[in-house]
Amino acid sequence: MKFISFRQGGTARWGVLRDDGAVIDLSDAGFGSTLRQAIAADLLGAAGTRAEQETPAGQVEDVELDSPLPDAGKLLAVGANYSDHAAEMNRDVGGDPQFFIRLPSSVVAHGAPILKPFVSDHLDYEGELAIVIGKPGRHIAIEDAKDHIAGYTIFNDGTVRDYQQVSLPVGKNFKASGSIGPWFVPAADISFPLTLETRVNGEVRQHNTTDNFTFGPARLIEYASRFTRLEPGDIIASGTPAGVGARRDPPAWLKAGDTLEVEISQIGILRNGIVNEPA
């Protein structure tokens, strides 16, 4: 089942997107005013059942898709979590995941434009699986970690490489440089492994499966919960495979007019166009 957050008539709403493109609005159905609230209350199953009985509020083309969790509390990301990407970037991963933090302003929704910064021509893509936390916790044991997963969405960890070389947090947090969406799929509807593919203007740039994670979702949750309390609606972007633009010969940076797609099996396609940031 696909859960979405969206805007209709300028108002923030949430609900379910049916396979026929119909949008079921659940904002006032008693499960919470946001998808994050429904996740925190463990009401996704009941919300899905209710959606099967409701009259559609319209079609998906009649609404503006938002980030699946626009009110997410934390956006954590992991570097070099595929061995082939670690090798192409000359990174020594070591024995623990390498986390960093992204600001909400650095990420846009499916269909919204990604900004190529006017101060850099080195905007790169990184297609990733994103884990959505459903159950709060601190110091979560690895054997219990899967119980804390609400579901999954798609993430593009857009990176400004020349600035990243000076400061990782800066290179990862340019305004509107990354993207997330288009929807959230509950963990119960997902079976691993998943296949990830990133395309630029239809050309395949990345292709891999989650079987090749260095650290799987449970390990990422276990480690992240050591340094922060994970809350419902928090998001962990799980790292990208090889094939980034920085390591192509010559480097293939994103530019205005490009279309970026990240597709993950059983979830869907995250699609964004690239535009120049106004100077």
Briefly characterize the structure:
By secondary structure, this protein is α+β, with helices and mostly antiparallel strands. The protein is 15% helix and 34% strand. It has 2 domains: 2-65, no CATH class; 75-276, Fumarylacetoacetase-like, C-terminal domain (Fumarylacetoacetate hydrolase, domain 2, Alpha-Beta Complex), CATH 3.90.850.10.
Explained architecture:
With 279 residues, this protein is an alpha+beta fold. The longest helix has 11 residues, at 217-227. It starts with a strand and ends with a strand. A hairpin with a 4-residue loop joins strand 2 (11-17) and strand 3. It is 15% helix and 34% strand. It is built from six helices and 19 strands. It folds into two domains: 2-65, no CATH class; 75-276, Alpha-Beta Complex (Fumarylacetoacetate hydrolase, domain 2). The strands form four sheets. It has a seven-stranded mixed beta sheet with strand order 7-6-17-11-12-14-8, covered by helices on one side. It has a five-stranded antiparallel beta sheet with strand order 4-3-2-1-5, with helices on one face. Strands 9-19-18-15-16 form a five-stranded mixed beta sheet, with no helix packed on it.
Provide keyphrases for this structure:
five-stranded antiparallel sheet, seven-stranded mixed sheet, 15% helix, Fumarylacetoacetate hydrolase, domain 2, 279 residues, 19 strands, alpha+beta
CATH superfamily of the largest domain: Fumarylacetoacetase-like, C-terminal domain
| Total of DSSP H or I helical runs spanning 4+ residues | 6
Query: Taking all residues together, what is the mean pLDDT?
Result: 96
Strand pairing plus helix content: what structural class? Answer: alpha+beta
End-to-end separation in angstroms reads 41 Å
Q: Which CATH architecture of the largest domain? A: Alpha-Beta Complex
